[in-house]
Amino acid sequence: MSSRVAIFFVLLAAVAASASESRTVTYQSGDETVSGVLYMPEHAKGRAPAIVVIHEWWGLNDWTKDQAAKLARQGYAALAVDLYRGKTTADPEVAHELMRGLPEDRARRDLLAAVKFLKVQKNVRGDRIAVIGWCMGGGYAESLAIADPDLAAAVINYGHLSTEKETLEQIHAPVLGLFGALDRGIPPESVQKFESTMKGLGKSVETHIYADAGHGFQNPANKSAYRPEDTEDAWKRITAFLAAHLKKK
Questions:
Q1: How far apart are CA 174 and CA 205, in angstroms?
Q2: If I label 204, which of 6, 17, 76, 240 is the partner at 20 to 30 A Cα–Cα?
Q3: What number is the average pLDDT over the span 150-167?
Q4: Once rounded to an integer, what is the mean pLDDT over residues 160-183?
Q5: What is the DSSP string of 103-128?
Q6: CA 129/CA 115 separation, integer angstroms
Q7: How far apart are CA 243 and CA 26, in angstroms?
């Protein structure tokens, strides 16, 4: 066996071992049962900080699960929630309909229930729970931060933003927001107003707008929008931000 082939099988085994750390879970949200995939860090000592991971308008697909697994490898318990009750798509028109058909109050209830689920896990630190989301999930990351005053941190990746003082004053978690200057749905002016309003309220907030990026720039499936260098920088920012707020002593 050549050295290259040997290395390939070692890497393949490592990926398989990492995947074995995930499991499908269910939890109650009102009278309904919600499912998700829980990823745990390998060889974790003690209780791990946790992150609620919220999918794009495509649903809980493999890309979102990969992001959750990536966070688990950084030492977090990552719960990838399924707001669509098992539905996924790669068709933008279907995704639009799925997003429109998702009741906001139900989604918020599901996310609050996800936090509650994590808090009772014996290997999770209940006082160190954050949220991260992309696209539609980014908007719901902000929504969860508004609804849960005990959240430890929130990462909003090109998600819809509130700008009203009355709404933003309910956020107590530090917020990191990552956006594209070419995003027609979330223009830089909206991001800047969000940040200035948050700072005016004395909130902890950091935003970054990538000059040559549009909406969905972190997902390789968005072939025309994907920006690998910006994505790499975004993950460096995400990693540093989460570590500062979830791994502090």
A1: 6
A2: 76
A3: 98
A4: 98
A5: -HHHHHHHHHHHHHHHHT-TTEEEEE
A6: 7
A7: 27
Structure tokens that stand for 45 in this block: 């000592």
- Single pTM value for the model: 0.91
What pLDDT sits at residue 52?
98
Reading the block at residue 96, the tokens are: 């639009």
| Distance in angstroms between the alpha carbons of the first and the last residue of the chain | 47
Range list of H helices, the chain: 3-19, 62-73, 92-100, 104-119, 136-147, 165-168, 188-200, 228-246
Residue type for position 11: L
Q: Which helix (H) or strand (E) holds 80?
A: strand 77-81
Q: Report d(CA 165, CA 243) in Å as an integer.
A: 28
Among 248, 218, 237, 249, residue whose Cα is nearest residue 67:
218
CA distance 55 to 68: 10
* Residue tagged 């688990």 (tokens): 72
68 has pLDDT over 60 = yes
What lies within 8 Å, CB to CB, of 209 at 6+ separation is 179, 180, 181, 188, 191
Residue with tokens 């719901």: 140
